[in-house]
Amino acid sequence: MSKVPEATSYEEWMKGEGIPIVEAEGGIEDVRKVDRREWARTGGKGAFLYLNGVRESGFTGMYVGEIPPGAALNPEKHLYEELIYILNGQGATQIWQEGQPQKSFEWGEGSFFAPPLNAWHRLYNVGKEPVIFLGVTNAPIVMDLFHNPEFVFGDSFVFTDRYNGESDYFKVGERVERAAGEHVVWETNFIPDLRNAFVDPRERPKGERVSIMGFEISENILTGHISQWPVGMYHKAHYHGPGAILLGLRSKGYVLMWPKEFGTTPFKDGYGDRVLRINWGDGAVYSPGDGWFHQHFNTGGEPARHIAFRTGGAKYRIGLRGRDNTRATVLSIKKGGAMIDYENEDPQIRRDFIEALGEAGVACQMSPVALPGSVVQG
C-alpha cells in the first residue's frame, strides 16, 4: 500500500520550486523585505507567502517576485488565474496567444493587472532598480485538482472568451453600479495606480466614512475591492471564510484578528492575549483565518487604503461554501450577519485605538458611541 502524502499537490509543487516558503499565522509587515531567492522557472527571484488564511482556504495562493534591473522574466502561461500588483519599479508586460501578434502595455509602482487565463505573458523591468511585485493566484485549487504541473503550465487550450488579441484589452475599463445603493464596481483589465485610483465616495456599512470600489478583472473569479477610510478612524470587525488576502496601499496602523469562537468582546471575556495585533502599512499583507474577526485601524496622517483580494464576485458566482459570502460581512451580527456594530464591540478596542492615536499625535475622528459597560468618546 502506498503511503498517504502529508502535503497537498500545491504544497509539493511549492517545495519543488526551490524558493523560500514564508509561513506566518496572521500577516507580514512588509512583503518587500521578505527573503527572495533565485527562481529557475521564472528567471527572476521569489518567495511563497503561506499565511494561515491562505493555507486554510486551499484556494488562493500568494508569492512575491523580483525582476532584476534591465532584465525580463521567462515567458509563461498557466491554467490558474493570477493578479499582479507592482510594489516597486517600472516595466512592461507582453501578452499573446499562440499564432497571434504580441501586445504590450507599460506599468509602474502601484499598477495592478491580471494576465488572461492560459495566455502567454512576459514581464520586463525597464528601470535601474529591481521590480518587486505581489502575485495572488488560485494555483492551490488548480494544482490540487489536476496534480500535474506539466499540464497546468503546458496545456495549449486558448480561452478566446478571456482574451483574443484585442488591441484595447488593457485599457482602463468602465465603472458600473450593478444594483441601486451598492458600491460601484470597476470592470477593467488594468489599473495604472491603485494607490490613487478613484474610490466610490459613498459611505459603506463596513464602517464610519468607509468608502469602497469593487473590481472585476480579466474575466476572473479572483476579484476584490479597494477600501479607503479617513485619518483617525477604523472599520467595523467582521468575519468570513478563509482565503481573502489584504494588502496595505497607503497610511499605516494595525489590524486585530481573533477567532469568532472568542466572541464579540474578546478582551472583556478573557481572550485578549490571543487576539493577534499586526502592524500594517504600505506593503503589508495579511490573511484572516476561517471565521476570524478582523478589524482595520488607521493611525497614520493620511487616509488609509488597502486592497482585498477574494474569490467570487457579482459577475461570476461560485458554489464553494464560504467563499462567496460578501453580503454577510456587511450585515450586523444582531441581524444574522457577520459584522460587529461599533456599539456592540469590546470597549477595549476603542480605548486602545485612542491610545495608539495619542502616541502617533493623531486626533480620533470617530463619533462618540455608547459601548457595553462604559461610554467612550470618539
What are the salient characteristics of this protein?
eight-stranded mixed β-sheet; 378 residues; mainly beta
What does this structure look like?
The protein has 378 residues and is mainly beta. 11% of the residues lie in helices and 33% in strands. It contains five helices and 24 strands. Strands 1, 3, 4, 5, 6, 9, 11 and 14 form an eight-stranded mixed sheet that branches. A hairpin with a 2-residue loop joins strand 23 (369-371) and strand 24.
How large is the count of helical segments?
5
Mean pLDDT: 91
The biggest beta sheet reads: 8 strands, mixed
The tally of strands reads 24
Overall geometry comes to: globular
Residue runs with pLDDT of under 50 for 5 or more positions: none
Q: N-to-C SSE series?
A: HEEEEHEEEEEEEHHEEEEEEEEEEEHEE
Determine the strand fraction and express it as a percent band.
25-35%
